[in-house]
Amino acid sequence: MQHPSDPIVRSAHDTALHTAPGGSDVAKAWYRTLNRKQWSALAASNLGWLFDGYETYTLILTIGVALHQLLAPAQYSQIPFYAGLVIALTLLGWGVGGLIGGVLTDYIGRKRMMMFSILTYALTTGLSAFAWNWESFVVLRIIVGLAMGTEWATGTAMTAELWPNRHRGKGAGLMQCGLGIGFFLASLVWLFVSQTGEHAWRYMYLVGVLPGFAILWMRANVPESEQWEQVDENRRKARAHQRAGGQLSKSEEALKRFTLVDLFSSQVLRRRTLIAVFMSLTTTLCWWGISSWVPPYIASVAAKSGLPPARWASYAGMLYNVGAIAGYIGLGFLADAFGRKWVTFTFFAMAFVLTPVLFLWTHDLGLLLVVCVVNGFFSLGQYTWMPTWLPELYPTRMRGTAIAFCFNVPRFLAWVGPLVAGTLIAQFGGYGYAAVTVGFIYLIGIVLTPFLPETAGKPLPEEV
After folding, report:
1. Is 172 within 8 Å of 160 (Cβ atoms)?
2. 221: CB partners within 8 A, 6+ apart
3. Fold entry, domain 34-224
4. How far apart are CA 296 and CA 35, in angstroms?
C-alpha cells in the first residue's frame, strides 16, 4: 500500500483537490483552486520577506544619520568606513543566520522557525533604537542579521510544500515580491519620519517592532507543512528503531544523517548543489556589482545635463524597484507556463544583454528610466528562480538546509561585487565599461542553467 506522502499519491490527491466539481479545472481561475491554508502560508512568507526588506532598507536610509549621533565629532570623517562595517557585519550575520535557520527548519518545523525568526528580528530591530554608541549598534545589527537570515529559506520551503505543483512558481514569485514592497514601505515611512528631528532614525527601528505581532496571527492561521510533519515522524521512528538495535533501511539511514552532510551524500546531490550555488552566486554578485550602481549612474548622467542628480537617482531607484517587483512575480508565473529552465535562462540572458543597453547605449534620460524598469524586471526579478526551482531539486528531509545553503553561501562572497565594481569604475573613469565588465558574470548562469533538471508541474521529490 502506498503511503500518502508518496509523490504519486500526492500528485493524484493534488489533482483531485484542485479539480472543479463539474470536471476539469481548466475553466477555473488558478487562484480559485487554492484553499485558505495555502493562501495563509503565502501571506506569512511574503510578510516575513517584506519585513526583511523594510529592515534592510531602513539600515541603508538611516545609517549615516545614526552614526552622526553614535560617533564622536572627531570620527565624522570616518563615517563611510563605519557605515560599510555595519552593513558588512549585518550581511555576514544574515548569511550565518540563513544557514543555521535552514538547518533548524528541517528539524523543528517550517512554521515554528518562521515565528521564531520574525519575533527575534522584530525585538532586536526595536532594540537598535536604543543603541548608545556605535559598538552597541554593531552588536545589535549582527543579531538582527542572524534573525533575518533564517526567514527566507523557511518561507520558501513552506510555500513550496503547501502550494500545488502547477502553481508553485506563482507562489514563489508572490512571496519574493515582498522584498521590493518592503523597500518601498521603508522609503514611504522615512519620507514622513525623517522630518521628526534628530531621533528620527530611532523611530524607524521602533516601527520595526510591529512585525512581531504577526506571530499572533500566524500561530492561529498558518498551518505546518504536512510533508515536513511526515518526515519528522519518520525521522523519530528511525531513531527509535536504531535505539532498539534494529537494522536501518537505506531511507532510515538518510533520515538519520545530519542534513548538511546529507546534502553532499550522493553524486546527484553534490552536482545539483554545486550548479545551484554558482547560479545563485551569479545573481548575487551581479546585484551588488551592477544593480546597486544604477541610481548613482543615472544621477551622473543627469548632472552632466544640468539636472538635479539626487532627484534623478531617486526616480531611477523607484522605477528600478517597480521593474523588480514585476520581475519577481513575472518569473514565477512564466516558469509555471514555460518551465523553470527556459525562463531562468532567458532572465540571465536578458540581464546580460540589457547591461550595456543601460550603461553604454542609452543616453536620453527619459529613455534611461524606461530601460531601468525593463532591466530591473530581468536583473532583479531573476532572484525568483531560487524560491521557484531550488525546493523542487531536494527531498523534504533536507529541503530547508539545501535552499539556505544555495542562497546564503554566495553572500559570503558578495562583498567582492561592489569592491571589484568600484575598482573598475575608478580604472575606467565611469560606470559604463565597469558595469559591462562585471556583467560577463551572467555568462556563468547562462552556461549552467541547462544542466539542472526541469521540474515544472512535478511533485516535490522525496528521494534524489
Report:
1. yes
2. 40
3. Growth Hormone; Chain: A; (1.20.1250)
4. 45
Local confidence pLDDT in tens for the 464 residues of the chain:
444 444 434 444 444 444 444 344 456 788 889 999 999 999 988 888 888 888 888 887 787 788 888 887 877 777 767 777 777 777 788 888 889 999 999 999 999 998 888 888 788 888 888 888 888 888 888 888 888 778 888 899 999 999 999 999 999 999 999 988 888 888 788 878 878 877 888 888 888 888 778 777 877 788 889 999 999 999 999 999 888 888 888 888 988 999 999 999 899 999 999 999 999 999 988 887 777 778 888 888 888 888 887 778 778 878 888 899 999 999 999 999 999 999 999 999 999 999 999 998 888 888 999 999 999 999 999 999 999 999 999 999 999 999 999 998 888 776 666 556 667 766 777 778 888 888 999 999 999 999 999 999 999 998 87
Q: Where are the alpha helices (DSSP H) in 244-293?
A: 250-256, 259-262, 267-289
Is 417 in contact with 286 (CB distance < 8 Å)?
A: yes
Helix (H) or strand (E) holding 60: helix 36-70
Task: Give domain 257-451's CATH architecture.
Answer: Up-down Bundle (1.20)
Q: Are the C-beta atoms of 390 and 258 separated by less than 8 Å?
A: no
Inter-CA distances, 106 with 96, 102, 211, 462, Å: 16, 7, 24, 14
The grid coordinates of residue 109 equal 518545523
74 Cβ contact partners less than 8 Å away, ≥ 6 residues apart: none
- Grid look-up 519577481 returns 328
What's the distance, CA 251 to chain centroid? 31
Q: Indicate where the chain has its CATH 1.20.1250.20 domain(s).
A: 34-224, 257-451
**Residue type present at position 65:** V
Contact 375, 282 (CB under 8 A): no
The C-alpha atoms of residue 372 and residue 321 are separated, in whole angstroms, by 9
pTM for the whole structure? 0.85
How many CB atoms are closer than 10 A to CB 46?
A: 21
Burial of 75 (0-12, 13-18, 19+ CB in 10 A): middle
Return the DSSP state at 215.
Answer: H
